TrEMBL record:
Its main location: membrane. The keyword Translocase does not apply. GO terms for molecular function: ATP binding. Keywords: Antibiotic resistance, ATP-binding, Nucleotide-binding, Transport. It is a peripheral membrane protein. Coiled coil: none annotated. CDD domains: ABC_DR_subfamily_A. Residues 4-229 form the ABC transporter domain. The keyword Transport applies. This is Multidrug ABC transporter ATP-binding protein. Gene3D superfamilies: P-loop containing nucleotide triphosphate hydrolases. It holds the Pfam family ABC_tran. It is found in: Cell membrane.
Length: 300
């Protein structure tokens, strides 16, 4: 069952459209990613879902409710991560948790929540003295304190070191295991690939693609990347006609081909036929990074 339904949403600032006819549905229990370059319209889209912005056109439903007309109801269903600037630097972790718990009719018990998020030792620490990772964990705690069915996390791991980012990923998986649906806005392909069940790629206010991370990789770039330095120029060899070669690129004497396993064999056979050796031959799986660039370039 879809817990969030977004249908034909448009939102312009002045005459410039930021979100230009976006539709998608988030199923209950999934981690749904929104991925896109800077200024693509990701935050505007989630702010419309949160009821913080009013769309110019289109319909949004959160568990059947309109985020603007039924704002109180939606606030109970949907927990949103707070922006850093919204917390007082002198507030302690305990005070922040108790204060935010008081906003909700049926809040979670914040003590076990703080323990679960690794903040048990930090209850008396002021917000300003927390590390970046600890602040992010506090934001997750505050987003969860109202016992929401959906939590919206917008660029949660930006600015975190790799270890803190991985710890945060583990927490997000833990949140989903507890039955909460997660809507995750991110810039990090690795994050989307690792966490998300499905990803909507937004570019210039529109959905460029919506699929599982592996579906996006397959569809966009060709899932196998072959690169090598040929022992002689390839001038006369038509690599682009190889079976399922989605893209062929030559840079500084190194050739990169996106294709499939079948392409790997075909490249080697073709080179052998022309008595060319492939030096430093590398075969790797495409990443969501490749797919993202491909999808967003395609709509450029
Ligand atoms: N309050 C506002 N007033 C005017 N223009 C805005 C406003 N908020 C966003 N925009 C513009 O709308 C477009 C989409 O912005 P939005 O913040 O939704 O993108 P984003 O995908 O979240 O970007 P980023 O990844 O950089 O956070 C951008 O061109 C931005 O400059």
């Amino acid at each position: 069952m879809a817990i969030i339904e977004v249908t034909g949403v448009r939102k312009a600032y002045g005459r410039r459209p930021a979100v230009d006819g976006v539709s998608f549905a988030v199923e209950e229990g999934e981690i749904f990613g929104i991925l896109g370059p800077n200024g693509a319209g990701k935050t505007t889209t989630v702010e419309c879902i949160e009821g913080l912005r009013v769309p110019d056109a289109g319909v949004i439903r959160v568990a059947g409710h309109d985020p603007v007309a039924d704002h109180d109801e939606v606030t109970r269903i949907l927990g949103a991560q707070l922006q850093e600037s919204e917390l007082q630097p002198k507030l302690t972790v305990r005070e922040a948790l108790a204060l935010y718990a008081a906003f909700y009719p049926n809040p979670a018990d914040w003590r076990p929540l703080a323990e679960r998020l690794g903040l048990g030792e930090k209850l008396n620490t002021r917000f300003a003295k927390l590390s970046g990772g600890q602040k992010q964990r506090l934001f997750i705690a505050l987003a969860l304190i109202g016992n929401p069915r959906v939590v919206v996390l917008d660029e949660l791991t930006t600015g975190l070191d790799p270890r803190a980012r991985r710890d945060t990923w583990a927490l997000i998986e833990d949140v989903r295991r507890s039955g909460v649906t997660v809507l995750l806005v991110t810039h990090f392909m690795e994050e989307a690939q690792r966490l998300c069940d499905r990803v909507a790629v937004i570019d210039k206010g529109r959905i460029a693609a919506l699929d599982t991370p592996s579906g996006l990789i397959r569809r966009a770039a060709g899932s196998t990347v072959i690169s090598f330095t040929p022992s002689a120029p390839l001038d006369d060899i038509a690599l682009t006609e190889l079976p399922q070669a989605a893209a062929v690129e030559e840079k500084h004497g190194r050739v990169t081909i996106h294709g499939t396993d079948e392409t790997v064999n075909a490249v080697i056979t073709l080179l052998a036929r022309h008595h060319i050796t492939a030096h430093q031959l590398r075969v790797s799986e495409a990443t969501l990074d490749d797919a993202f660039l491909d999808l967003t370039e395609a709509s450029a």
